[in-house]
Amino acid sequence: MEPKLRMVLADQELLKFYEQMFLAREFEERCAEQYTKGNITGFLHLYSGQEAVAVGATAGLHHDDYILSAYREHAQAIVRGAKPKRVMAELFGKATGICKGKGGSMHLFDPAINFMGGYAIVGGQLPIAVGLAFAARYRGEDRITACFFGDGAVNQGTFHESLNWAQLWQLPVLFICENNFYGIGTEVHRSSALASIHRRTCGYDIPSEKVDGMDVIAIYKAVKHAAEKVRESGRPYFIEATTYRYRGHSMADPGKYRSSAEHDLWKTRDPLPNYAKRLIDEGITTREALDAIEARYKTLVDDAVKFAEESPWPEDSEVYNDIYV
Amino acid sequence: MAEMTYRDAINLALKEEMRHAPSVVVLGEDVALYEGSFKVTRGLLAEFGEERVRDTPISENTIIGVSIGAAMGGLRPVAELMTVNFALLAMDQIINHMAKIRSMFGGQTFLPMTVRMPGGGGSQLAAQHSQSLETYFMHCPGLRVLYPSTPADAKGLLKSAIRDNNPVIFLEHELLYNSKGQVPEDPEFLIPIGKAEIKRLGEQVTIVSYARMTVLALQAAEELEKEGISCEVVDLRSLAPLDEEAILGSVRKTGRVVVVEECWRNCGLGAEITSRIFEKCFDSLQAPVKRVSGLDVPMPYSRKIEKICIPDKESIAQAVRDVVSGRY
Question: Which residues of B touch A (CB under 8 A)?
Answer without folding.
Answer: 25, 51, 54, 56-57, 59, 61-62, 64-75, 77, 92-93, 96-97, 101-110, 141-142, 144, 164-166
